[in-house]
Amino acid sequence: MFILSRRIIAGAALALALMPCVAAAHEYKLGSLEILHPWSRATPPGAKVAGGYLIVKNHGPADRLIAASIEAAGSASIHEMATTDGVMTMRALKDGAVVPDNGELTLKPGAYHLMFEELKQPLKEGERIPGTLTFEKAGTIKVDFAVEAMGAAEPAGAHKGHEGH
């Protein structure tokens, strides 16, 4: 009886330890597209902009991410950051970002990303902010952006268990 109880306790402890990874992992499917881990960073009070990040895996013909939105922002656009001769620049991509056929589009800090503008409230760590992503061919899908810590480089637990994708 004592051994069985220890096994149950050990199993429960392991399950609890893995819960943050499961909770952080959120994926969506739209046609041949997989949208992995939409996330943003927490913002300080008074901030007017925030970035949005995610991975789009395409298992079919090329498509294009053409629009995005979140309930907490007045507008959103797709941006690209680049460094030329040591100078970092950022520009809006008026035609969106290509999701290559049988490839992927990665939106991450310092590269392609979503720019959420005219924030209506601070984004708070731990929240999930409802939003949408619109693709030229696949259409629109509702997603939740997980809000991570202010300095996060990627979402917590984002790539654990996805090595085979």
TrEMBL record:
InterPro entries for the chain: LpqE-like, Lxx211020-like, PCuAC_sf
Keyword Mitochondrion: no
Keywords: Signal
Leader sequence residues: 1-25
Thylakoid in keyword set: no
Domain of life: Bacteria
Cited PANTHER family: BLR7088 PROTEIN, COPPER CHAPERONE PCU(A)C
Protein name: Copper chaperone PCu(A)C
Organism annotation: Methylocella silvestris (strain DSM 15510 / CIP 108128 / LMG 27833 / NCIMB 13906 / BL2)
